[in-house]
Amino acid sequence: MAPQHGKTLNTHISVDTWRSTIILLKRMVQQLEIREVDFDELKRNLEFTASLLEALYTSGTPPSLDADDDLQLRSDVVPVEVRDWLASTFTQRVQPIRQRLEEKPKFRSIVHAVQAGIFVERMFRKAYSTAMPDQPAEVINCLRDLDRWSFDVFSLDAVSSGHSLKTLFIELIIKHHLNSRFKVPISCLMSFLCELERGYSKHTNAYHNHTHAADVTHTVHCLLLRTRVLYWLTELEVLACLFAAAIHDYEHTGNTNNFHINTRSELAMIYNDHSVQESHHVSAAFRLLQDENTNIFINLTRPEWLELRSLVIEMVLGTDMSSHVLQVKAMRSCLQQHESIDKPKALSLILHAADISHPAKPWSLHSRWTPRLMEEFFTQGDKEAEMGLAISPLCDRHNTPVSQSQIAFMEFIVEPTFSLISDMSEKIVIPLIQDTAGPSPTCSRYRGLQWTVADLVSFRSMWMRHTEENKNRWRDKVKNGVSHSDESETQTGQDTA
Ligand SMILES: Nc1ncnc2c1ncn2[C@@H]1O[C@@H]2COP(=O)(O)O[C@H]2[C@H]1O
Ligand SMILES: [Zn+2]
């Protein structure tokens, strides 16, 4: 078949060009924000991005990402319409719905869009501060530590009267400018977060409750920031990460998946024993968005919505611990074979790491999470005993070696996962530093990138120091004979909290 008349010309814009362009656009917005604008440079940059967009819209073809091209179709051989049909019918990839050609943006409309963006941002900032006018000083104080690994979510929960998830999610959405970028209606956000917190308290779990969701949401933010993976992501991907973290255990029943399967629970029947709880968390959370009063994504375009939904589903399903080994193996082999890193896989690994992160945090936090988790496990053990079932491992309140289980969990699960996150981040971020190594960037966001290598090293030594210290604490307990659940283990965690 003959190649399509000029349609495929210039359609292959490299991933690197797209990435640099996105970085360029973001840099322009930041320069505008801090009012450090060199108008000639701004004009040049806008002209460049406009010509790139023009090339894209003239060709009518979305950016071609080779690594993503499941069917290995060469664009100069297969007509674009056929490629779209094959990709949307025979792969799992969701095709973004393309804007019609007559909707091609003109240079002037891009300038207007930038101006409008700044206006919308200001408007939304105002709306948010009006909606949360009297944040207690203690809440504001607590949130000052938001970028720190040692951020104390228990304190935030106390000072926000049990609303750590709501408070933290709003704060992060504003911090990453996502409320204005995606025009999230404040009333929807408030209602959505009320429902979310309500769902997390449905089963009154000691561990899987809204505080754990707030902790994981904060940790995802902190991981993205500390590893600098944040600079690799689009705003939509950042939104997907925070949302996935916030909903990842929504309506958790306080039992393990195996318990659901063994007791043939309603959820096990619905989801055919596959990632039973995770399937429910993500499905029930998306159901909340079906109501227009709680649909925080009401202003997303259809392609944005589809991309966000697909990312969130993959990330939340990836928190099923039974996929841990596969996930780790796949990413390890990708790094060893110098393959390009698949974003959804990288983000799923980050959410999974955040979900098991408390043993890599300071002892004052880890020692408060462990007894909560153990209590939840023991409650399941009590139920199993009552039902005449075998008690699951780690669920027997009279005979569980808590300290040893924590040491093993850190050595075999937490440390390998965090080591992988550190390696993966280096592979992702170092090329980004090289990309921006040219003329010294003026805005603070990109100045941060120059620190990346040192930051990655310090991130690695930070989590290693905490896991080492926590393991030593548990080892001391074993030495002192306080290592079993029936030796008041679950209280010992509170001593330094
Ligand atoms: N300190 C820990 N010891 C044992 N298991 C843990 C620990 N922390 C997290 N987990 C498990 O890891 C799982 C991660 O997903 P969940 O939050 O659903 O449930 C968590 C627990 O089952
Ligand atoms: Zn969790």
From TrEMBL:
Top EC class per UniProt? hydrolase
> Quick one: which residues bind Zn(2+) 1?
212, 248-249, 355
Alphabetized Pfam families for the sequence = PDEase_I, PDEase_I_N
Q: Name one GO molecular function term.
A: 3',5'-cyclic-nucleotide phosphodiesterase activity
* Annotated catalytic residues: 208
Q: Where is this region: Disordered?
A: 474-497
Q: Where is the PDEase domain?
A: 131-481
Q: Kindly list the positions annotated as binding AMP.
A: 208-212, 249, 355, 406
Q: Which cofactor does it need?
A: a divalent metal cation
Task: Identify the CDD domains for this entry.
Answer: HDc
> Its GO biological process terms?
signal transduction
Task: Please give the name of this protein.
Answer: Phosphodiesterase
The organism's lineage is: Eukaryota, Metazoa, Chordata, Craniata, Vertebrata
